Amino acid sequence: MVRVTCLGAAESVTGSNYLVESSSGKKVLVDCGLFQGGKVMENRNWQDWGFHPEEIETLFLTHAHIDHSGRIPKLVKDGFHGQIITSPPTAELCQIMLLDSAHIQEMDAEWQTRKNQRQGKGEIPPLYTTEDAEASIKSLRPTERDQLIEPEPGIKARLRNAGHILGSSILELWVEENNDSIKIVFSGDLGKNNQLIVRDPHEVFDADYLFIESTYGNRLHRPFEDSKQELLEAINYSVSHGEKVIIPAFAVERTQEMLYILGEFYRQGLLPDIPVYLDSPLAIRATKIFRKNKKYYDEEAQAIVDQGFDPFNMPNLQFTESTEESIAINEKPGSAVIIAANGMCTAGRIKHHLKHNLWRPGASIVIVGFQAQGTTGRQIVDGAKQVKIFRENVSVKAKAFTIGGFSAHADQKDLLEWIGNFESKPRVFVVHGEATASETLAKRIKERFNLSVHVPRWKERLMLKPREVAYEEPREAERMPSLETAMLNTVIDLEKELKALKRRVKAKETQGRIEEDDVGRLKFVQEELQAILSK
Ligand SMILES: [Zn+2]
Fold first, then answer.
1. Ligand 1 center from residue 459 Cα (angstroms)
2. First-to-last C-alpha distance (Å) of the chain
3. Which DSSP category does 333 fall into?
4. Ligand 1 centroid, distance to 65 Cα (angstroms)
5. How far is CA 206 from CA 10, 203, 428, in A?
6. CA separation, residue 414 to residues 54, 193, 227, 367 (Å)
């Protein structure tokens, strides 16, 4: 029996962490993310792991987002000295993100300590330090996707493209169990089809058990093209008033998507001639990693490269790395687009830009990402007349544009479509979602596919057995099917085979597997089919 314990991202979206244990005592981890969003959640980062980090030899990391990777330095600090298997772009992104996260942890601890000392209390240590982050980076083992690996005896795995952010992966995991093997698939964060930059999520056809994310399990995204139009509208609105456009954006993926769209506007002659500032050191570093990793782009992004452009560039784009350069932006009058972190307006340089522009009629604040309750970003979305920034009340006179179509997550329709690829009827566990999102998705999966579905609670331990295959002697009537049944069965088989053929034709590695002769033979089958139909 394989045990899976949901130690994070169960009944919530942050802190992703699953412990997989085989009956022979092997333990591996899937993701090791930071809990985020309020005191109660953040306190979980300090709690016991629920296992001994030194016993873990392998950690599989689906992608670089901090809610999936942000507790790795703590794991290392607490005794983990195994390997971290992840895709090459994820490994690169993790290097900058874990160091950035360590810096934030150190600053937080310093601030808390100063506050404590004023009250006569003791020092607060950081959750982890820059040294811990550096040690974590040494454990990263970049592994290309689509290849079967055996990181330790009895454990096989394969990373597949999840289409969520650069390098994001689905994990296929095979755990050996007494001469048998159980296949578990972890979706990780799943992207939507036709997302910018990254390719569509890989279709998986079989699993005994499936762990599926449900961030938007109860929602449908607005059309992407409409969102692009809204962004252009916001820019034109502020340009016509000679004011600035402020875009709070997460440093990894959302920022690069914004640059990609602005680049597209530029090449189409739609972008007004104003400066575009990328004002976040982390986002600048992430953009450089995106620029480097061209081989992971989708066809559209590749086509832009083939035409001689950089998808994340335009002549007016300026990277403002230093604090002085950042301050100078607001001293220059006139229109500009400013992309800054963080995405929810709670910290970072974005706060300075809001302070300088929120009160200015004609300026615009473009909200392109999820805004959690209690954040400044959420207050702006909810139409607050005034918000507090650096202990100062700033009135909101700028126009807020809330654009909903830029999500990097599959919505309910995409998730169901992806699950529809499975031909093996897996048992499904719905994770990584707020309770209502997970429950709604679970209900839809049951209705649509008649699969057994469960929404695990935080810390719930699931017992996974090898799936039994039942054999049944065919009944008399089934041995000699009627002409209609035989015909129907053949049509169903044919449908399956055609689907498989379509997949093969569409696949990149088709060359050599299809010959000219094959097309002729298929045409012959088609003619025979038409003959049957025309009778
Ligand atoms: Zn993510």
1. 21
2. 55
3. -
4. 5
5. 23, 10, 12
6. 38, 7, 18, 23
Q: Quick count: other Cβ atoms within 10 Å of Cβ 258?
A: 24
Least Cα distance to 217 among 36, 67, 432, 15 occurs for: 432
| Centre of ligand 1 from the C-alpha of residue 30, in Å | 14
168 C-alpha to center of ligand 1: Å? Answer: 8
Ligand 1 centroid to Cα of residue 256, in Å, is 14
pLDDT of residue 483: 76
At residue 474, the pLDDT reads: 47
CA of 63 to the centre of ligand 1 (A): 7
Tokens of 511: 């060359």
Q: How far apart are CA 306 and CA 298, in angstroms?
A: 12
Buried b or exposed e, range 124-140, using 16+ CB within 10 angstroms: bebbbbbebbebbbebb
CA of 13 relative to ligand 1 center, distance in Å: 9
In the reported structure, the alpha carbon of residue 164 is separated from the centroid of ligand 1 by a whole-number distance in angstroms of 7
Q: How far is the CA of 64 from the centre of ligand 1 (A)?
A: 7
- Compute the distance from residue 291 Cα to the ligand 1 centre, in Å: 20
- Return the structure tokens found at 416: 């169901």
Residue 44 CA to ligand 1 centre (angstroms): 19
CA of 249 to the centre of ligand 1 (A): 14
Three state DSSP letters for 19-49:
EEECCCCCEEEECCCCCCCCHHHHHHHHCCC
Does this model's pTM top 0.85? My answer is no
Calculate ∠ Cα 341-344-345, nearest 5°. Answer: 65
The CA distance from 273 to 275, in Å, is 7
Mean pLDDT by 10 residues, the chain (535 residues): 93 92 94 87 93 97 96 98 98 97 93 91 94 98 96 96 97 92 96 93 96 94 92 98 96 95 96 97 96 96 95 96 94 95 86 96 93 84 93 95 90 95 94 94 95 94 80 49 73 82 76 78 89 87
| Cβ atoms of 184 and 208 closer than 8 Å | yes
